[in-house]
Amino acid sequence: MRDLYQIEVFDGVYPPSEDTYLLLDVVDFDTEDSVLDVGCGAGLGTVLAASKAHSVVGIDISLEAVRNTLENIKRNHQRENAEVLQSDLLSAVSTKSKFSIIMFNPPYLPADESTTTMDHVHIGGEQGSEMTQRCINQAAQHLYDEGRLFLVVSSLANTSAIVKTLEEAYFHVEFVAERSLFFEKIQVIKGIFRGHKETVL
Q1: What does the alpha-carbon distance between residue 146 and residue 172 come to, in Å, rounded to a whole number?
Q2: In this structure, what DSSP letter does residue 9 have?
């Protein structure tokens, strides 16, 4: 995958990294899938999805990341079935839009006393889990039943809170990949949306 696509990375945009590849290696795109790539960054996930799925929407809160993804869609000739929006998580996505796959490589590190110009792509909240939890609750409104939500999580964050949020939002939870880095372990969670099934008495 690293050599299949031409990906330019703009200044200030998160580049494809080990967590990106871990995520994309396990997302099982199908030609009928409609995909939402949350936090699309430089756009590798959006480009890959466009080459395999029926349609893809990339979203990012950063306007520079949106521009970067658009550039890489053009570079890789994937403009026909891909679009990109600036959005704070899923806030700009139409309430009528539904997807069969939503994927998110979020900022997942806990906040600390140091600050950098790249905190917006690394810090996921006080416990590192808050942004992911927000995304889960929004994603549940935009997935078809049996739709799949793929998330990257870190051992440095509150992973148990993320799993609890998934279960409360009616997802079946599976850990489908992991990789140990020098200071943490990153994992990919696959949530299968079961929908809100009303009990019939």
Answers
A1: 9
A2: -
Rounded-to-integer distance, Cα 73 and Cα 6, Å: 9
Q: Indicate whether this model's pTM tops 0.85.
A: yes
Torsion of CA 170, 104, 109, 5, to 10 degrees: 160
**CATH entry 3.40.50.150 includes domain 1-10+29-88+98-105:** yes
pLDDT, tens digit (0-9, with 9 covering 90-100), for 5-54: 999 999 999 999 999 999 999 999 999 999 999 999 999 999 999 999 99
Query: Which residues neighbour 30 within 8 Å (Cβ) at sequence distance 6 or greater?
Result: 52, 53, 100
Which residue in 53, 57, 45, 51 sits closest to 106, CA to CA? 45
Q: What DSSP state is assigned to residue 14?
A: P
Helix (H) or strand (E) holding 149, with range, is strand 143-154
Q: Are 85 and 93 in contact (CB under 8 A)?
A: yes
Are 20 and 69 contacting, i.e. CB atoms less than 8 angstroms apart? no
